[in-house]
Write a structure and sequence with these properties.
- The protein folds into 3 domains: 1-168, Immunoglobulin-like (Sandwich); 199-236, no CATH class; 240-416, von Willebrand factor, type A domain (Rossmann fold).
- The strands form 6 sheets. The chain has a 6-stranded mixed β-sheet, with helices on both faces.
- The protein is 32% helix and 30% strand.
- The protein has helices spanning 5-24, 27-51, 183-186, 219-225, 260-277, 300-312, 321-331, 349-361, 373-376, 386-399, 412-416; strands at 2-3, 54-59, 63-65, 69-78, 84-91, 108-116, 121-129, 134-138, 142-145, 152-157, 163-168, 199-207, 229-237, 240-245, 254-255, 258-259, 281-286, 292-297, 337-342, 365-371, 403-406.
- It comes from Methylomonas koyamae.
């Protein structure tokens, strides 16, 4: 129970009235003091009685996408026989206003209920926009009342109304990626590779070995040499995408949803969604305070786990991107496509290019997304990095790496689907 300031003011008047009644020994001061005392008593007890035997619950989704509008349903049940008046509904919804300021623990007033009959229910819906990705702890939802005099406020919390609410990064459609192979191409030629092996080109002939696919037998050569000969293939592209996410603190510039981190998170989530739709294997690696690491997998559950991790990923790491790429090079498959998200400071470009050269030497294919850091700075606050960043652009060009440039305010759907 929260005692309001007006209660103490009224209590002062009551004490003054009683003091005057004792001094004058008249009935009118006693009546006035009794009226003020009765008001104080009712102001303290009535809000408590109004909320007694009243229950509230919230029906809300557990997941949503950034930018979606979700509906929260609230139900208030008066379990008592007498009606209830002037109740206020309040809930802790930290994701509301998250783009303007850091999510807080303040409870928000959602509305009022003027009247509930005995053993009656009131239901209503509230539409809220999911402004920023993240994991939020909602509730507890509660009711409050200070009726009739506003001298004290009583609050109750609903049972089991504290729940987690995850907002996933906003996704955008990708029609196709610049890959050298895809699952739809694996079985089109005269070869048949195991699932997940990717696309390949003819490399030569060799003797048949136990376990070789009979469809790879080269019959003209077999007939000529009177010995089973099979075609051997060299992988061009693995049916797997490796998403390299830069979570270093100095790689993130910009504010709120218009920061390089948020753009990179949306791209990573959308690429993973593309892999899921195309039945591609995908994996993810990012070095923050806690590493975001997912082994190769595919399907809805794998994609769901990636979204859970990306929803709470933050740019709080200290590992340079070149070190992350070097670790990927040591474990990547030949022909695997590594999706690069390049947003680090220009002074690290030389080390990054060396790591990219190592990836190419290991047989990895590369797809680069380069962020224009200057565009993400507030107007007039950026530093011209174009001359130094030209080295990275030329390096990618020399390696034959497809490169997409992303600037602040770009429509990512148009960038990836020109």
């Amino acid at each position: 129970m929260a005692i309001q300031r007006r209660f103490w003011i009224l209590a002062g008047f009551a004490l003054a009235a009683y003091a005057g009644a004792i001094a004058r020994e008249q009935s009118l001061p006693w009546l006035l003091a009794a009226l003020i005392g009765g008001g104080l008593l009712s102001g303290l007890l009535w809000p408590y009685l109004l909320l007694k035997r009243v229950a509230i619950r919230r029906i809300a989704p557990q997941r949503a996408l950034e930018g979606d509008t979700v509906r929260f349903e609230f139900e208030v049940h008066n379990r008592g026989r007498l009606p209830r008046f002037m109740l206020e509904l309040a809930d802790r919804l930290p994701f509301v206003g998250a783009t303007e300021q850091a999510p807080g623990a303040d409870t928000r007033l959602l509305g009022g209920i003027a009247y509930i009959p005995g053993d009656g229910r009131r239901r209503f819906e509230l539409a809220l926009q999911c402004e920023k990705r993240g994991f939020y702890r909602l509730g507890p939802v509660g009711l409050a009342s200070s009726f009739p005099l506003g001298l004290a406020e009583v609050r109750i919390a609903g049972e089991r109304t504290t729940q987690g609410f995850t907002i996933y990064p906003k996704l955008f459609p990708i029609q196709a990626l610049a890959l050298l192979g895809a699952p739809s191409q694996i079985h089109r030629g005269a070869y048949c590779l195991p699932e997940g092996a990717g696309a390949a080109e003819f490399a030569g002939l060799r003797e048949y070995r136990s376990g070789d696919n009979p469809r790879h037998v080269h019959w003209p050569t077999t007939a000529r040499m009177n010995e089973l000969m099979v075609k051997e293939f060299e992988p061009l592209a693995s049916a797997c995408l490796y998403i390299a996410l830069d979570l270093a603190k100095d790689a993130n510039v910009g504010r709120g949803r218009h920061s390089t981190l948020e753009y990179a998170i949306r791209i990573a989530a959308s690429v993973a969604g593309y892999a899921c739709r195309q039945n591609l294997h995908s994996r993810l690696l990012g070095y923050g305070t806690q590493a975001v690491r997912f082994a190769s997998g595919k399907g809805e559950l794998h994609f769901q786990n990636i979204l859970d991790a990306l929803a709470v990923a933050d740019s709080d790491g200290r590992t340079p991107y070149a070190e992350l790429l070097t670790d990927i090079a040591l474990h990547c498959q030949r022909g695997e496509t590594v999706v690069l998200l390049l947003s680090e400071p220009p002074h690290r470009d030389a080390a990054t290019l060396q790591a990219l050269a190592l990836l190419r030497a290991r047989g990895a294919n590369l797809l680069a997304v380069t962020f224009d850091r200057d565009s993400f700075f507030p107007s007039g606050a950026g530093v011209d990095t174009a001359p130094r960043r030209r080295d990275l652009t030329l390096g990618l060009l020399e390696m034959g790496v497809p490169n997409l440039t992303v600037r602040k305010g770009d429509d990512l759907t148009e960038v990836f689907n020109p």
